[in-house]
Amino acid sequence: AAALRSAGLPPPPAPAGRLLAALAAAGVFRLRAVLVGSRAFATYPALLGVALPEALGRTTDVDIAQDPAVSAMLDDRIGQPIEAILRERADPGFAAVPDVPGEWRAPALGLRLFTCNRGGRAPRRHLPALRADGPALRMMDFLLRDPVPAVVPHDAGVLVEVPDPARYAVHGLMIATRRADPDGARKALAQAAALIAVLAGDRPRALAAAHAEAWARGPAWRTALKDGGAGLPEPARTALALLTR
Questions:
Q1: I want to staple 1 with a disulfide (CB 3.0 to 4.6 A). Which of 44, 47, 157, 205 is the partner?
Q2: What angle do CA 171, 172, 175 make, to 5 degrees?
Q3: What is the pTM of this model?
């Protein structure tokens, strides 16, 4: 962690660092939960050995996700409910957001928990390993497959699991035009563009394979890929087109 900071990788804000450390100490990432969203993007410069726009990794929220099939398969679970972990180890101001499953907030920080929807109608799913419910999102299973270990440079370092960078880029393309908030949509597309520009040169096979897997999922996925790809800036648009033609 010290080497990463000395190389220029910025640490997360202290409240977010304490939150991630609390989740890791409680076993959340050991139990196959995955750090997603902008906080995961912020780990990619170290994983890929490149500079990425620092602003694209800034966020006041920490987002995690877990596949419900994985959660049900594990013969283990965290020792306390998530809210108790947050209040005791991160910030005593944490409380569940009323009528919003899988979301807890403190005055300057939030935690959101997501899970997968593989075509069912249930808006939420229970995650027994994490002793909590989370909103079930389409395409999340694609993002969570084959996560990789990463270090968040907080204190002595927090070991987490994050999505494979190629999957993160392709997933960002698909959700960018489907997000309700314009700022979130622009950020998702910018993150995808930044990763595609790097991966097309350094890990072209991984990027092409992730795109091909998403493309094979069916018409709705292909439409999402086309819509997202059309919004990419150059040179990411050309790089992706050359890899996927």
A1: 157
A2: 85
A3: 0.96
